[in-house]
Each structure stands twice: as structure tokens, then as C-alpha cells.
Amino acid sequence: MTDREPLRQRLVAGLAELHCDLPPAAIERLLDYVALLARWNATYNLSAVREPAAMVTRHLLDSLAVAPWVCGHTLVDLGTGPGLPGIPLAIAAPQRQVTLVDSNGKKTRFLRAAVRELGLANVQVVEGRVEALSGQYDCVTARAFASLADMLAWGGHLLAPGGRWLALKGRVGDEELGALPAPFVVQAVQALSVPGLDAERCVVIIAGSGQPAGAPATRIQS
Fold first, then answer.
1. How far apart are CA 175 and CA 128, in angstroms?
2. Helix 24-44 to helix 105-118 angle, to the nearest 10 degrees?
């Protein structure tokens, strides 16, 4: 069994760098999530990241780096896979209702087990395709499972008026940014610095109009 203390130290140090202040119970729940994912991953191959220490960096801290730009009372995480960034964000903000969406049955089985075992009362899991999902959400998160234009074509109807779409990417070019369908506009491209991760990360902040919800984002093109 993996020694939990080094993982806790790595997580706490990373959270301090992100200026993300979480209570001890949330930190333990994040570590419980890593332990559960590592256990399932050995059988079901849910993530290419195999080592729990790497999961702390590449899954937990990578997800929580976007937390300052999350807004509103409801969030939907599209193409969530094993729950990223949705589960770490849900643990960090238990008052927010989070919906995790994925079309892969193996991954949604894990998600339901995680919700149950971690006691995530603010999380629900939906197995299905993004374009078939109904409802509207204050915030939409999505890792780069497709181009920005395709993601918005499939899931743009899920963004509530005044809401914010957060697309997590490694890098993004001007051509992709310029190909967004109306009425969506890029408010900012914010570079992200993930503690312990030597790779480019950014979040593309998209609004359905020129006035997204929450505080205005800093414009940093990377």
C-alpha cells in the first residue's frame, strides 16, 4: 500500500503554490480519490497516469489550478473520464452542484463508485453523449477532448446565460480561437502554472456574450 504521508505533503505544498486553501477534510478526500482511482486503474485502465504521486500532480493539482475561474452554483464537466477536473473541483467546493458526463460505461461505473465511497452528495453522474444532454449550467468545464469549435457545437446549449465555459488545454492557436461559432466569444486565454508539472497548460475562458458571470478574468495570451 502506498504511504499516504508523502502524497499529502506533495498535495499540501502544491495547494499552497496555487493559493488554494482547503480544509483538512477536503485534503483527505482528495487523497481518498487518488487511492480509489489507483486501485481501479490497476484493473480497468482508466488513466494513463499510473503512480499515485503523479496523480497528485497531473490530476489533482492540474484540476485545481483552474478553480479561481470556476463560477456559479452549478457546473457540468464534459468528457470527464475518471472525474477530471470535476471531482477535485467538487471536493474543493461542496456547495456547488457538479454533474459529470462521459459516454464510456467503464468510466461512469468508476465515477458512481467514487461518488458513493467518497460521500460526494453534490455530484451526479450522467452516462451519455454531450450533444444529448439537456439543462443549463453556470459553468462548463472540459479537457481538450476536441477542438473548441466542436466542443461548443456539441455542448454549447448547456451554458446558461451569463455563464462561463472553461476549456483546459495544453496550448491553443489563434486559428482555433478564431473559429468559435456565434454567439460564443473568447474572454481570455489564461496561462496556468501547475506545481510540479513541466508542461504547458492554459484555460480558455469562453462566454456566450461579452459579459460572463463572476469576476473578470485576467487576459494572458500564451
1. 30
2. 150
Contact 161, 137 (CB under 8 A): no
Sequence letter at residue 16: A
- Helix (H) / strand (E) element for 161: namely strand 159-169
Q: What is the pLDDT of residues 64-77, one digit of tens each?
A: 999 999 999 999 99
Amino acid 189 reads V
C-alpha cell at 32: 481518498
Per-residue pLDDT tens over the stretch 171-187: 899 999 999 999 999 99
Task: Give me the count of residues in the chain.
Answer: 222
In the chain, what are the helix, strand and coil shares in percent, each to the nearest 5? 40, 20, 40
- Residue type present at position 103: S
| Contact (CB, 8 A) for 43 and 25 | no
Are 164 and 208 in contact by the 8 Å Cβ rule? The answer is: no
- Is the C-alpha dihedral spanning 178, 182, 189, 170 positive or negative? negative
**Other CB atoms closer than 10 Å to residue 153's CB: what's the count?**
16
Radius of gyration of the chain (CA): 16
Q: Which residue segments constitute the domains of the chain, with CATH numbers given?
A: 4-207 (3.40.50.150)
Widest pairwise Cα distance in the chain = 51
193-220 confidence digits (pLDDT tens): 999 999 999 999 999 864 444 433 334 4
3-state secondary structure of 35: helix
